DNA sequence: GAATTGTACTGTGTGACATACACTATGCGG
DNA sequence: CCGCATAGTGTATGTCACACAGTACAATTC
């Protein structure tokens, strides 16, 4: 039986969903591996579950937006991800779209029409 | 076989998803019926299909965020929707969350870290 | 050697939109 | 009056993506 907090939490999660791709692409302009990427996102205020992050990374790689490399560092093997050229271009487009959506939201919520 | 444009379109749609609730709640601070609501959203830059809008409205009503009333106007029966008190409160919370997400996106995309 | 942290990944379920479709009513040109 | 555009409200289904709850193993700390 969901109470008000559960409801808000549900909506909050839904609101965050679309921004995850943008956040991941943005963070991967600098090379990172999964664990630190996740930490960066959490620090920036967008925590993401591993179960959501890794499939997302694989999808973005399959779509050619990022590349990954399995490499040893500090005695451990880690998979390093980095934005591709296509990814950089798409990130730019998505940011424009994001700004446009932001404007729409402002138009719809800041004025009574 | 998806080309670059299809890919971007897919991501664009995904990016927009979460903002729909916010847009609908924002637009319904003023009473509207489905058709004009849809027109308002499109005008604001967030077009939404009927098949997405009506189920969304029903869900939001089931969650108590808005109320609806079946009423005649201009010789036609129309279902009018309006934000409830709970809806107003949740809209405020979601807007805060939206701003917080926006800040996170900016942090992640405008600076190289 | 136990616990904690670092690191990567899988499987299943749920939920929500996109897409396409269905239906009725009004107004209008010819 | 007869199409046809527009106004208006819905339903059904498929796809897709995340949340959640696990699995697995290495390094470090105590």
TrEMBL record, chains A, B:
InterPro entries: Metal_resp_DNA-bind_regulator (IPR052509), Tscrpt_reg_PadR_N (IPR005149), WH-like_DNA-bd_sf (IPR036388), WH_DNA-bd_sf (IPR036390). It comes from the Bacteria. Residues 22-92 form the Transcription regulator PadR N-terminal domain. It holds the Pfam family PadR. Coiled coil: none annotated. SUPFAM superfamilies: Winged helix' DNA-binding domain. This is PadR family transcriptional regulator.
């Amino acid at each position: 039986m969901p109470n008000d907090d559960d409801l808000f939490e549900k909506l909050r999660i839904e609101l965050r969903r679309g921004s995850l791709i943008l956040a991941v692409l943005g963070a991967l302009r600098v090379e990172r591996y999964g664990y630190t990427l996740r930490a960066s996102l959490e620090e920036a205020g967008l925590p993401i579950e591993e179960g959501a992050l890794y499939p997302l990374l694989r999808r973005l790689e399959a779509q050619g937006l990022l590349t990954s490399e399995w490499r040893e560092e500090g005695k451990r093997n880690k998979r390093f991800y980095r934005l591709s050229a296509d990814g950089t271009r798409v990130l730019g487009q998505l940011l424009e779209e994001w700004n446009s959506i932001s404007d729409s939201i402002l138009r719809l919520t800041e004025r009574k029409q």
